[in-house]
Design a protein that fits this description.
Blueprint: E1 26-31, E2 42-49, H1 53-57, E3 63-68, E4 74-78, E5 84-89, E6 92-97, H2 110-127, E7 131-138, E8 141-149, H3 155-158, E9 176-179, H4 192-212, E10 217-223, E11 226-232, H5 238-257, H6 262-279, H7 287-305, H8 317-327, H9 331-342, H10 348-364, H11 369-375, H12 380-386, H13 391-404, H14 428-438, H15 445-464, H16 470-519, H17 533-541, H18 549-563, E12 570-572, E13 601-603, E14 605-608, E15 611-618, E16 632-636, E17 652-655, H19 663-670, E18 675-677, H20 682-685, E19 691-695, E20 700-704, H21 707-714
Parallel strand pairs: 15-16, 16-17, 17-18
Antiparallel strand pairs: 1-2, 1-7, 2-3, 3-4, 5-6, 7-8, 9-11, 9-12, 10-11, 13-20, 14-18, 15-19, 19-20
Length: 715
């Protein structure tokens, strides 16, 4: 109208929206709460092949999946027989048949389902209300087509509980952050002193990425007392990054030429720093000396964690190329065979296992001790101190704690914090391991490892038997020897950096706390974790006592307030890109069956060869005292140094996550314990106490329905 009257200058500006035309692999609807069951603790995802129009109007059958809000794990699902789909044809949208191989296949593999759930939470957080989200997956990424508020909800679901976020760096709001639950206290809030540990780790990660020129930088953010992990760009210029990375590779080549590893280069500095902390006599130190010790422990923690990434830098392509040349093996089967040839060397972890076994042998020879350990370790320590017959065992236990007392289980697959007790202060944890070994009548772990090494060497000989290229074999053997030394670094690195730095920091803080309690600054040793490091150091250097109770009280109140906030499983904007769809169904379905909540057979990645049958024991992340015994099969999200001392006793291992080269898989292979990793939804699908039959080579886990009755019959 304005244009017709010549008033074009008065026309409002208009935006032109350009949208790509998608051809989705699958599409559907996500509801960020469950409006039917009226539950906020789970999201609901509907999915069908092809376009999402069929889901919206119900024309085609679709899967229904319920996802837990706190962990983003699958709660349960109904997988439909999807014989029809809506697709884009030459003349428009049409209904078409679904290929036979996809009719009973779930639309969403685990990684895709998790990413959609992350988008659902992100959109709800941005809008402040539960959302009805239309989505599609096309060209290897998630596309959000529409998001609107869910309507007709009861008042308790209509609004999203507030979780206010104030980013120091505005760019962090556009990045993606995943909640990192605390070990043994997943719903808890970080204590003030733990914030200093986080700051040190963030600084160390930045320093390490700068040193090696790697991008992006893995980092953490603390939001309302909760720890979120993500990544940020390395602010160094591309030239700086290239130069630093190349210099690190040059160093590796020089070390390799002399038969050395990165641990030979950096290890002495790392070990000497740890030994200085361990040699400190906290019992004879005054306040200022303890203050310096706390500063040194925190500085050592940050300095040594800088090496965490760079120390593992190694170009493994020559090794894999040499292996393929002499064996002809490539791909997944080649990787499995190669990994099996790398381990078997003696490490800190094998030394710990051997010492635990020796303690069990000594306990068996100590009158009265086996019975006490079998009944529980609660009063055993007091009994040991008062019993003359236990002198030899006490001496051996003290020697073990002197060598490994800073152990706290920190590492990939099992994490610790500043609040996690060390073996030195909680020797009952060691006695529980001794009790587990005492109840086993198996061979000494060293014998098992020796046999595994022999089998490893025989496998290598059989693989090389088909190769007649002597030069290629010589090159392979040289690279293999180097790779085995590199593999040993994993244990040395974990013991020194992951565990010893954190353990020594905790022991330094506790020594300071005892001094402050004795002088009257603190009411209890545990109160020290409500202070910041600078406050502890300042109190230790004061000439006179200064009551810290008001600070502790205020911090407790603040943490209590934060603990009532519901922490989302993620913050920011999830990445749109998705991993490739697995080649096979993740959870095989019975023909014609709609319910996929309890399949008999699960599939994963074989990580340690062999077959085993045993009782499943579900162990949740962060558990300090896993209920594991001889012949059990550990089932967990992941596993690390906290639990690996139990591995020689187990019949098998099933992990929902994991990889061929991680600590848990290596330890399993060293002791001939069959293991399957990357088993989707293992925690949900396997009942605790159920019978399992697993094949660590094929990567299968079978649930035995009548396992309990079989055990009874055999008795």
């Amino acid at each position: 109208e304005r244009g017709r009257h010549g008033r074009l200058d008065a026309l409002p500006a208009m935006a032109v929206l350009l949208q790509p035309l998608l051809t989705p692999a699958c599409a559907g609807v996500l509801l960020s709460v469950d409006p039917v069951a009226r539950r906020r603790d789970r999201l609901v995802i509907s999915a069908a092949w092809g376009l999402g129009a069929g889901v919206a109007d119900g024309r085609v059958p679709g899967d229904a999946e319920w996802v837990r809000r706190d962990t983003l794990d699958l709660d349960h699902r109904r997988v439909a027989v999807k014989d029809r789909q809506i697709v884009l044809g030459p003349d428009g949208v049409i209904e078409a048949a679904v290929p036979a191989e996809r009719v009973a296949l779930p639309c969403l593999p685990a990684a895709w389902r998790r990413r959609l759930a992350q988008y659902g939470l992100a959109l709800e957080q941005a809008a402040g209300r539960p959302q009805d989200v239309e989505w599609a997956i096309a060209d290897g990424q998630v596309w959000i087509l529409q998001s609107r508020a869910l309507t007709a909800l009861p008042p308790e679901l209509a609004e999203t509980p507030p979780f206010p976020v104030e980013w120091i760096d505005a760019a962090d709001a556009r990045r993606f952050w995943s909640l990192r639950p605390l070990p043994d206290r997943p719903a808890d809030v970080l204590r003030p002193l733990e914030l200093d540990q986080v700051d040190a780790r963030v600084g160390a990660s930045r320093d390490g990425h700068h040193f090696a020129g790697r991008d992006p930088v893995n980092t953490w953010r603390v939001v309302n007392g909760r720890l979120y992990e993500g990544s940020v760009p390395n602010e160094l210029s591309p030239g700086d990054r290239r130069v630093r990375w190349q210099l690190l590779l040059d160093l590796n080549q020089r070390l390799e030429a002399t038969g050395q590893t990165n641990w030979d280069y950096w290890g002495p500095e790392i070990v000497s720093a740890i030994e200085r902390l361990r040699a400190f006599d906290s019992g004879a130190a005054d306040g200022p000396a303890l203050a310096a010790h706390v500063e040194d422990a925190l500085g050592t923690y940050r300095r040594l964690w800088m090496f965490h990434g760079p120390i593992f830098v190694r170009d493994t392509r020559p090794l894999r190329e040499a292996f393929a040349t002499v064996t002809g093996l490539t791909g997944e089967s080649g990787e499995q065979a190669l990994q099996g040839l790398l381990e078997g060397e003696e490490t800190v972890a094998t030394a710990i296992v051997d010492r635990l076994y020796a303690l069990a042998v000594l306990a068996r020879a100590t009158p009265g001790l086996p019975e006490r350990l079998a009944a529980g370790v609660g009063e055993t320590l007091t009994w040991l101190e008062a019993t003359d017959d236990a002198e030899a065992f006490r001496a051996a236990l003290d020697s073990f704690l002197a060598d490994f007392g800073q152990h706290n289980g920190d590492g990939y697959g099992s994490e610790a914090t500043l609040l996690t007790p060390t073996w030195a202060e909680a020797p009952a944890l060691v006695l529980e391991l001794v009790a587990a070994y005492l109840s086993s009548d198996g061979e000494p772990p060293s014998v098992v490892r020796r046999r595994a090494r022999q089998a490893r060497d025989e496998r290598e000989a059989a693989l090389l038997a088909t190769c007649d290229d002597a030069a290629a074999i010589d090159r392979w053997r040289a690279l293999l020897a180097q790779a085995r030394r590199d593999r040993q670094i994993m244990d040395e690195h974990n013991h020194a950096i992951d565990q010893s730095t954190l353990g020594c920091l905790r022991l330094a803080v506790l020594a300071a706390a005892r001094w402050l309690v004795a002088r009257g600054d603190l009411a209890s040793v545990e109160d020290v974790f409500w202070l910041r490091a600078e406050e502890i150091v300042a109190a230790l250097r004061r000439q006179e006592p200064h009551g810290l109770a008001p600070i502790v009280t205020a911090r407790r109140a603040e943490v209590e307030r934060l603990s009532h906030l519901e922490a989302p499983a993620c913050l920011g904007v999830p990445p749109a890109g998705l991993p490739a769809r697995p080649a096979e169904p993740e959870v095989p379905l019975e023909t014609g069956g709609l319910e996929a909540s309890s399949p008999a057979l699960l599939r994963g990645l074989g990580a340690s060869p062999g077959r085993a049958t045993g009782r499943a024991r579900i162990v949740l992340a962060g558990t300090l005292r896993p209920d594991l015994g001889p012949g059990d099969i550990l089932v967990a999200h992941n596993a690390g140094p906290l639990w690996t001392p139990y591995f020689p006793l187990l019949a098998g291992i099933v992990l929902q996550e994991g990889s061929l080269g991680q600590h848990a898989a290596i330890t399993a292979r060293e002791y001939g314990v069959p293991a399957v990793v990357q088993v989707p939804d293992a925690i949900r699908l396997i009942p605790d106490g159920a019978g399992l039959a697993l094949d660590g080579e094929e990567g299968t886990v079978k649930i035995i329905e009548d396992f309990g009755s079989r055990i009874s019959d055999s008795r």
